[in-house]
Amino acid sequence: MQINSLVRAASVALLATFGAASAMAETPADPKSVKKDDSGKYLDAKGDPTFNVAPDGAVDWFTYSGYRRYSSECIVCHGPDAEGSTYAPALKNSVKVLDYAEFYGIVVGGRQNVSGGQNKVMPALGDNKNVMCYIDDIYVYLRARSVEAVARGRPAAHEEKLPKVTETEHACVGDKS
């Protein structure tokens, strides 16, 4: 994990602990990428992770990875392609109003909404390495789906995965290979 990610994670955890995350939430920035970091990750004007789709339809590595991670960890509750289900909301709509910090805080700490006789619970996934090591990827994929930049289903083509991304993954999941 990069230092910025660690600082951001600590900040979000503190805000969530004191109940201030939603009170301080900002609207998400325009998802247009304005910068690419040395790992190949695209960033918006606020510096939050975002997607990039080439003119030929190929997505960046992180959007592709986000699709894969979403499909293995989130689909059960939130439905295929972030479209929602009778059990949980469409995350492609949620990221239209949740900025990265609020999204991160909800994933890490969970959330419970009780209204209209319903009790909706998002479990805390802060200890799940299959989510946390790829949370940026999942967010990027959801942002792409939120503006229909990526169609339903598996992206047909994607950028290559850079060696630096593989190193970061191995460090996060604790893989020594």
From TrEMBL:
MF term (GO), any: metal ion binding
Gene3D superfamilies, alphabetized: Cytochrome c-like domain (1.10.760.10)
Matching InterPro entries: C-typ_cyt_methanol_metab-rel, Cyt_c-like_dom, Cyt_c-like_dom_sf
Residue ranges occupied by any Cytochrome c domain in the UniProt entry: 42-146
Top-rank taxon: Bacteria
Signal peptide feature range: 1-25
UniProt-recorded name of the protein: C-type cytochrome, methanol metabolism-related
